[in-house]
UniProtKB/TrEMBL annotation:
GO terms for molecular function: oxidoreductase activity, acting on a sulfur group of donors, disulfide as acceptor. It comes from Papilio xuthus. This is Gamma-interferon-inducible lysosomal thiol reductase-like. Keywords: Glycoprotein, Signal. InterPro entries: Interferon-induced_GILT (IPR004911), Thioredoxin-like_sf (IPR036249). The keyword Glycosyltransferase does not apply. The keyword Signal applies. Belongs to the GILT family. It holds the Pfam family GILT.
Length: 241
């Protein structure tokens, strides 16, 4: 019965991975990283990420907060989000935040990450963050991360997805295992805190939180000039009303 309820929730109700009830676990968090000297994210790193996202004008802003091992994040990201990006990605400013219901602490010069689905998720989130940083083609990075989520977002998945998408997976893994991956995950943790969400996947469209149902239709309705891929979507939705 419990499996049936889970599947019903997953398929029909659009459930989420809720935030953990307490942050006291940070005191017992696992140190996943090397010691690092910096107390803040480097200005160069922040500037690089911001420029990649902001070098777009007059596009609908999509912000998606997620974590790589949440089953509901995986379903939305791979089955809804990425197909929409493939259709109308040229008309969107897409920003994803691979952090989710994680916590960050700093102890003895090291950042400590405590992720909802354990140590593997912290590393997987780093792989996602590094792909976003290293791949100059934003859509390619999003599709690569979708491929990771179809597996377990681990090294073997990175190798598989890299081979199939002609992506240098070794560089992404090296980033995730090093200080840059640490800084990137810290950055996405800081940015995620601004979202003030208590579950993931959490979707924001043009600065407003929106539910995930009829995602492409909701986006298409916003455009003043309807992009060609949206014409049939809008017509179909209106015909069904």
């Amino acid at each position: 019965m419990s499996i049936y309820i889970y599947l019903l929730c997953f398929v029909y109700l659009g459930c989420e991975c809720s935030a953990l009830p307490s942050k006291n676990q940070l005191n017992n968090g696992t140190n996943l990283d090397q010691n690092i000297n910096s107390t803040t994210i480097s200005n160069d790193l922040n500037t690089t990420i911001t420029e990649k996202a902001d070098n777009v004008k007059e596009k609908v802003l999509i912000q998606l907060y997620y974590e790589c091992l949440c089953p509901f994040c995986t379903h939305f990201y791979t089955e809804v989000f990425i197909p929409t990006i493939r259709e109308i990605g040229d008309y969107l400013d897409v920003r994803t935040y691979p952090y989710g219901n994680a916590w960050t602490n700093k102890r003895n010069g090291s950042y400590v990450f405590d992720c909802q689905h354990g140590r593997a998720e912290c590393y997987g989130n780093k792989l996602h963050a590094c792909a976003l940083d290293l791949l100059q083609n934003k859509t390619q990075a999003l599709v690569f991360n979708s491929c990771l989520m179809e597996g377990n977002s681990d090294d073997s998945d990175a190798d598989y997805c890299g081979k199939n998408q002609n992506v240098d997976a070794d560089s992404i893994k090296e980033c995730a295992k090093g200080n840059k991956g640490t800084l990137l995950l810290k950055y996405y943790g800081d940015e995620s805190a601004k979202g003030q969400y208590n579950y993931v996947p959490y979707l924001v469209i043009n600065g407003e939180h929106r539910t995930r149902s009829n995602f492409m239709y909701k986006v298409c309705k916003i455009f003043t000039v309807t992009p060609p891929p949206c014409v049939e979507v809008l017509k179909s939705e209106e015909d069904n009303k």
